[in-house]
Amino acid sequence: MSDTENWEQFRAQIGAARALLGDPSAAARGRSDMVPVAEPSADASLPSLLEQCLDMLAAPSPAIRPSLRTVHQLACVGGTLINRCIASMPNTKLLSEVDPLSPIAFNQPQTFVPTDLIRLDRASSRPSGDDVLTRIFLAGTEVLYEETRRNGVALILRDHAHGQFSFGDHTQHHPTLMEMLEDRFTLRSLVIVRHPMESFLSLRANDWLHFSPPSLKRYSELYLAFLDHFSALPILRYEDFLQDPQTRMQETCDILDLSYNPDFIHLFPDLQLSGDSGRGGDIIKERPRKPVPPDIAKAAAAAPAYRALCARLGYAIG
Question: Which domains does the chain show, CATH number per domain?
Fold first, then answer.
């Protein structure tokens, strides 16, 4: 190929490249056999890259919702121990047993609660409805979130689902903690469970059978309703945590997007939370199972809901 041909090919390639960049006349200038195309006017040219960037900056940015962590469990499933370990992770703040509309709290006889705005409203001369109390709770939660965010701390709310799913003769109709939060926050959440026979016997020993009738059958039905409500969430079994606390806690931190510190084993004994149903000692280890009274064993054999619950959670029926 001659120098002239090389030059013409080079001009054609440059012209084609410039045409791709928004200069259609460049293709004509790069090809000697094409009729020149009129230069585009300044008004017809594409906006400059700088102008496009300025337009993007001026456009409203999509709202980024704040992020919260929530942990959900029924009573007597080992939740306090596990939440103490979660609270031992670096840069965390955990609020224990949260349910602003709990019927259990409102049924307590205590009337001197000067720091509790929701209970003060309930006991006022003109109590507000659940919608107002929920707004009070959300406003306070947003203040806490902003305070923790500024300090680089993750805010974690431990649900008190007992009042929702284990109180009275039916599941409560007020919104759950997750339902209250999910419209304003992006949630990273976890469910803690335990063998239903063990948790039922613990409830009975603590005189916490707040549902009616106080039977294993009814407890199993309510437990299943709880699982149905939180069916989209990952589950941590208490027994699995006891067998391998380091691995399970690292998995928990991954789920909740928390920094993991293996030294939590030594730190959690110094943290105290409400809701401790009686597990003593600061060593994480398996305990002997409670003996099952004959009447409860008979009830278990006759309760399809109990068998379904054990199967769903991967536990042996006995």
Answer: 1-39 (no CATH), 68-313 (3.40.50)
